[in-house]
Amino acid sequence: MSDSYPQSRSTVPHRKRERMSRDKDLVRRVFDESWTVDVAFTGGNGEPRVLPMFHVRVGDRLYLHWSSGSRLGLTSEDGIRVSVSATLLDGLVLAKSWTNHSMNYRCAIAHGTARPVLDDDEAWDAMKALVDRVEPGRSDRTRGPSAKEWAEVRIFRLDLEEVAVKRRVGGVGDESADADVEVETGIMPVETVVSPLE
Amino acid sequence: MSDSYPQSRSTVPHRKRERMSRDKDLVRRVFDESWTVDVAFTGGNGEPRVLPMFHVRVGDRLYLHWSSGSRLGLTSEDGIRVSVSATLLDGLVLAKSWTNHSMNYRCAIAHGTARPVLDDDEAWDAMKALVDRVEPGRSDRTRGPSAKEWAEVRIFRLDLEEVAVKRRVGGVGDESADADVEVETGIMPVETVVSPLE
């Protein structure tokens, strides 16, 4: 068994090759750490559209939650072509020259067809996993959906196949010629902090 | 002068109307607080694509930075149709029932044509503003781009016209019928924390 997702036309790096990875653990961790994803699709008018969504990863399946009232919910059971990104900002990179300023980040991008989950058991398990993302075991301590509530829930699934992570890690990449530029440089770490219940 | 961006077909709310706003201060603040945006566009193969980018807002102009080597950089001077989102997660909403779980967030989405900035002074000012986003006044303390470095820089501009914020604020929306479900509820505040230089 491979530890990497397969290479595809969409996940061939075209520049800064060393920043791209299809390592499964790395890809999965980015989706798991990120609280939301951005879902890009083509709207009915042919225009690009993007929407943030709440998601959960189960194995190599990414489940996306949205209300049946929303625009995407109107699309057919055939699914919709999407590009889904999860971006984690890890640090601001402060350098001696303008163009050496950068960011440390991890960004997972998956391409494919997001399809509505029509199997009721699968949709239920996905919804349960979405609730448990917020607090492990919470789905057992809270009330499950009534028939009416359940009818409003739409879960879409995107299988992680065409997927890769792009990232930057490490320190400042200053030029040696800039040694005498007198300015503080380094990394300002960035973190998403979730505080206890208020 | 209006304090709101104009209504357009893309920014008419189709559901949860109260969650959408075109208030200029609110829209601007979301782009200013967010460190990155997600840019959706249609790829050369007709497929939806999304990329995170570093941005800065100057007045009603959103400047997007990317390298000339990247895929989007290959597009023509006519610009490219985009949908750009900035999403701030403010809190996790823990409720008594599965479907009342939610998130407090502010998401700005702008639609339009992103065009390469061909005016050299405008591009320079935008690049300077990008550096100063990281630390006010930093562009004056660091070395500006050499001719070679400058030739690699691509700044795109999207004018904020067709733009709105969607948001959720406030507390838990539990049903009165769930009063006897014994579980802790409330908001877990979420924040992006930038630490001092390391």
Automatic annotation (TrEMBL), chains A, B:
Coiled coil: none annotated. The keyword Isomerase does not apply. Residues 1-11 have a biased composition (Polar residues). The keyword Magnesium does not apply. Pfam families: Pyridox_ox_2. Keywords: Oxidoreductase. Its EC number is 1.-.-.-. GO terms for molecular function: oxidoreductase activity. InterPro entries: Pyridox_Oxase-rel, Split_barrel_FMN-bd. This is Pyridoxamine 5'-phosphate oxidase family protein.
